[in-house]
């Protein structure tokens, strides 16, 4: 099993595969070509078909444009063989010559892959046990708790990372409860978290906690939909 960092990711919405993945790919390509005079990015298949609604272009432009101009080519009818969420980044020098092309795939949950020969650009397996029953047996056998198993497998920075996840989520909830107006997109959906929160605070004690939990969840969903930074469960987000 991979690191918990692969489960709880911090990134921008609204989609782990269409926003978080492309943003990460753009960051990686920019690290390789900070000297580029411009960039060309081609989005294929699903990324191109629904990318505008998921702000794929915004994620890429926000990353690359501070360094150099970006040209995005949308190719929704072309599906690369490895995965439907394919994209190609090209760096262009001052003379207009392409210095490198890199094809990468956003395979879900914010994770990236290159091809069958290099299927993952992520952290290695860090947990020896992959079944919950095995972990439960280990806890009973050793007398240790879940967090102690995590401590044995993860790097020491895991606790700082989880604290950052918690802080990010709390900030997303706070922003979502304060924000009003309409969410981005052509549907003109109004934000409802703030209204639900006010309504829930007036509920009887037996119902209030349930109402507040719903308001908090809605606040994060609306922040995610608006493209804001939050902590996401990308496997769940991708399945949705």
Radius of gyration, in Å, reads 21 Å
Please list the strands of the largest sheet in the order they lie side by side.
Answer: 3-2-4-5-6
**Fraction in helix:** 40-55%
CATH class of the largest domain: Alpha Beta
- Proportion in β-strands: 15-25%
- CATH topology call of the largest domain: 60s Ribosomal Protein L30, Chain: A
Total of helices = 9
At CATH's second level, what is the architecture of the largest domain? 2-Layer Sandwich
Outline the low-pLDDT stretches: 234-240
The secondary structure category is alpha+beta
Subunit organisation of the chains: single chain
CATH superfamily of the largest domain: D-3-phosphoglycerate dehydrogenase, domain 3
Number of DSSP-assigned strands = 7
What characterizes the major β-sheet? 5 strands, mixed
Features:
single chain; 240 residues; alpha+beta; 60s Ribosomal Protein L30, Chain: A; 5-stranded mixed β-sheet; 18% strand
SSE arrangement:
Layout: E1 9-12, H1 16-32, E2 38-44, H2 45-50, H3 56-64, E3 70-75, E4 86-92, E5 98-108, E6 111-113, H4 132-142, H5 146-153, H6 158-178, H7 193-201, H8 205-225, E7 229-232, H9 234-239
Parallel strand pairs: 2-3
Antiparallel strand pairs: 1-7, 2-4, 4-5, 5-6
Helix pairs in contact: 1-3, 6-8, 7-8
